[in-house]
Every structure is written in structure tokens, then in C-alpha cells.
Amino acid sequence: MKKLLRKIKKSIVSSGPKSGLWKQMLVSAYIIGLKMFTKYNRYDRSIHKVIEKYRPDLEGNAKQTRKLCREIIYCRFMYGILPKEYFIYRFDLLSHEGRMTFVTRSNKYYFYRKFNNKNYAEFLNSKTETLRKFGKFYHRDVLCVYDENDYPAFCEFIKKHPRFIYKPARDYGGHGIKIYNSELYDSAKDLFDLVMFDGVCVCEELIIQGEEIAQFHRESVNTVRIVTYRSDDGVAHPQWCFLRMGAGGSHTDNMSAGGISALIDYETGIICDCGRDYDGNRYVFHPDSGKQLVGFNVPKWDEVKSMIQQLANALPQVRFVGWDLAYTDSGWVFVEGNARPQCVAPQITAYNGKLSTYKEMDAIFEADKAAKEANES
Q1: Same fold, 111-136+209-376 and 141-205
Q2: What distance in Å separates the CA atoms of residue 30 and residue 43, rounded to the nearest whole number?
Q3: What own/partner pairs with CB < 8 Å and gap ≥ 24 does 351-355 have?
Q4: How far apart (Å, rounded) are the C-alpha atoms in residues 364 and 370?
Q5: What residues contact 355, with CB distance under 8 A and at least 6 apart?
């Protein structure tokens, strides 16, 4: 049944929009389907919440709000976007052809599954496994905490690093990350019980940023995110890269947590466009520090490019990865890798969908596959 429904949806999407009546019938049928699976009420609430944020001018205008709700639901069915993505990608300005150029939840997972061996992706999905695989790139102390047996090691760790950063083993988007100061607790055991409350985690020595990067937002560790695709010849092909910075005093630099991302030209290491936040706001200067973003030359950029190639070749079974690096006075250090890198930041820029980039990676994948089959025959 699911396969049949997917085929029907694929046929509808590929054929594009028809008449206004057809569109309204499609939306009505989709709403009925959502209600059958008890998903509509929650989705409807999320749509109204987003509309209140992005279109406050519609307050009290029930007719126009209802019309916009149905348009967002239509885009969810056709293009797989989230309600907020309708606004940050400016789908209201785009034709069907323009909307089809975007990477969304309806098309990105196909590429993740194809490019990345899920058995090896575990090295990036779990913080403890990441440490095992990429430990030499950390250049700082990190402790994996699995159970009560790790209490003695934890005591030694906090003696050396009274302030440290805590990360759940499977956090994403910066969720769950906290900075602890052991001197504020009555005993090491109290703190240990607290960090163990949600299960397996890692405790890391705090990264002390170099001044060049710290100046933008000192409360967070600001990182460079470089997304690469590794071909079978061992070359990590850069797809896009950003300097990610916290904002508003946040300890994380993720856009989903209110951070700002600024596009970097990979060849030169220079920020080549305004910074953006998840709402699509543009920043020539960081809103908190006032430091200029556009034109900033990221320090020791050749070191970044060298480390990226090494990281990609340390896990060749996972071709498509988003790598996060932080800058210190001693150079660049590895923070983490993501086997399902998000594509929000590059697509916010100038309403520019990145599906063509994914298709270019797919072409490399198919060429490598054909070459391998030819060599084996």
C-alpha cells in the first residue's frame, strides 16, 4: 500500500500543478489522509504558529490565513517542506520549477542512503564511536562516560578540567549540550549522577578559541562546517562551507538554536556573502559583536582543507559528510562529523535550491560504480 501511495505521489509531483480546482481537491484529499493518521491537528497547529511569526499582518484575517494554510499544506505534499521552510525559502515567490530545485525531507534521504553505508555511519552518529575513529584529530581531552565504572576516570577528568562541556552520545543540532563547572557542586558524585542521568555521554575539555574567530560571538564555540563528498579516488569534493556562529549569548552555533551562518568561498577561505539566520535575516555585521562578516579571511585556511581531506579518508565508507572544525591558538581541531548534513543554510542564500548539487554527487557515485564494475569484469 505504501509503495502504491508513493508511486501516485511521485506521478502527481512530476506532472506539476494543474488547475486551481485540481489543487484544492488535492489539498482536501491530503488533509483527509493526515486526519486518518491523526497527524493533521498537530501539523495545523505548527502551521498557525509559523504564520503568526512570519505573517503577523494576517492576524484577525481568517480568510487569508486559511488560504495560506492550504498553500503550505499543498507545498508539504508536493515538495516535502516544513512550514517554516515555506517562508525562509520564499516559496511564495517561486514557480513549481523553482520549488523543485530544493533539497527537502522528501528527496534528501534517498541520497543519504545511497552515498553512506549505514553500518559505518554509526561512527558519526554516536559521540563515543566518533572519538574512537577520529580521536587523533581532537587535540584535547575527552572522556566517554558509559556507566558507574567510569566514576574514577570522571573524578580525574574534572580535577584537570573543572569546567567542561557535556554532550549526550546521540545529540544533534546542539541539543542537550551543556557547560558544567564542577566547583559549583557539593561533590563529584553529585555531578557524575547528573551527567549520567540521560545515559551515555562524553565530557570534553573546553575548546579555547583563537581570537580571530572568538571575536564574533564569545559565548559559543564558532565552527567551520564543510560538507564534502568523497569519491573513490580518495578526493573529498567540497560542496559548501560556512562559518557558524552563536548569537544572543547561546552556547551553540547551530542555526536551529538561533545561530548565524556565513558562506565561505572554499578556494580562498573568505566569507563571500552576508550571514544568515534560520529566519533568513541577513547580516553584514554580527548582530551582537558588530564585527564585519563579509570579507573576513578565515585563518590558516590551507590547514582546514588539509584536515578535511584526512577526515574524509579516515571513513571512506561514508562519502557524504558535514565536518565541523574549531579554531584555537594551536590551529584547527575536529569537533564532529554529521552523516546527514542539513542543507538549510546554503538554500537560504538567494532562494537557491541545491538539488542540482546532490545530483552532481550522484553522477560521481554512478561513475565510480561503473568504473568498479568494469575493473571487476
Answers
A1: no
A2: 12
A3: 351/89, 351/90, 351/93, 351/94, 351/98, 352/101, 353/89, 353/98, 353/99, 353/100, 353/101, 353/102, 353/103, 354/101, 354/102, 354/103, 354/240, 355/100, 355/101, 355/102, 355/103, 355/107
A4: 10
A5: 100, 101, 102, 103, 107
Phi, psi of 109 (to 5 degrees): -70, -25
Residue 309 near residue 212 (C-beta atoms within 8 A): no
Give per-residue pLDDT as tens, 319-376: 999 999 999 999 999 999 999 998 988 998 767 899 999 999 999 999 999 999 998 8
Specify whether the CB–CB gap between 323 and 313 falls below 8 A: no
Pick the CATH number of 111-136+209-376 from 3.30.470.20, 3.30.930.10, 3.40.50.410, 3.20.20.150: 3.30.470.20
For residues 233 and 225, the answer to whether their CB atoms sit within 8 Å is: no
Q: Which residues contact 152 (CB under 8 A, 6 or more apart)?
A: none
pLDDT number for residue 356: 96
Query: Can you tell me which residue has the cell 571512506?
Result: 316
Please report the pLDDT score of residue 304 as a whole number: 98
Q: What is the pTM of this model?
A: 0.91
Here the contacts of 149-155 (C-beta below 8 Å, separation 24 or greater) are: 151/188, 151/189, 151/192, 154/188, 154/192, 154/195, 154/203, 155/188, 155/192
C-alpha pair distances (Å), 135 with each of 95, 139, 245: 47, 8, 24
- Per-domain residue ranges of the chain: 2-100, 111-136+209-376, 141-205
Cα distance between residue 269 and residue 295, in whole Å: 10
In the sheet that holds 163-168, the strands lie side by side as 142-145, 201-205, 163-168, 178-181
Please state the φ and ψ torsions of residue 93, each to the nearest 5 degrees: -95, -10
Cβ 109 vs Cβ 341: under 8 Å: no
- Assigned CATH class of 141-205: alpha beta
For the beta carbon of residue 99, count every other beta carbon within 10 angstroms.
Answer: 21
Give the chain's radius of gyration (CA, Å).
23
Alpha-carbon gap, residue 75 to 94, rounded angstroms: 11
